[in-house]
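Appendix C. Worked example: TRAP-type C4-dicarboxylate transport system, small permease component
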Amino acid sequence: MTLKKFLNNFEEYFCVWTLAIMTIVVFVQVVMRYVFANSLSWSEELARFIFLWFSWVGASYAVRERSHFRVEMLVDLFKGASRIWIEYLVLLIWFAFSFFLTWYGTKLVLFIRGAGQVSAAMRMPMTWPYAAVPAGCALMCVRLIVEIWKLHKNGLSHAESGEVRATELKPSGDTTEPLEGGK
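Step 2, the predicted output written as structure tokens:
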């Protein structure tokens, strides 16, 4: 595996591994609680923290895959150049919001680090779970810059390439190929 491929797919690998680890931790907790009648004090907290990281890094992966929820009604009213400008506007607002969360999330992490706050069960510094927000949003910012560049380079062909509407799917549901006459 090349470094470029790893960096391009980092979020996907990260989400797969964190989901696997979280599943194992929860499974061990269930076995310990119901088979051995002795629960682990730290497992629920660890699973929660892993889920935080999974969610925020997964949000960045969803940007790459263009699978975030979108309200298409307004965008579909526009065609041609005006639609491209609306797409730019949406991506720029999204980038600004992600940058805001990165900036203030980092400030919050630094504040918590200075306060020395630790988690209840594991006694782990709370900077680690809180760092999921600025880390995930920073990754989203990078992915949004890539999306803005792709929109600039390829125009609407890129903006529409990631969209497959449910009404365009074949009735079998086994494939994501559009029906004839679809976009």
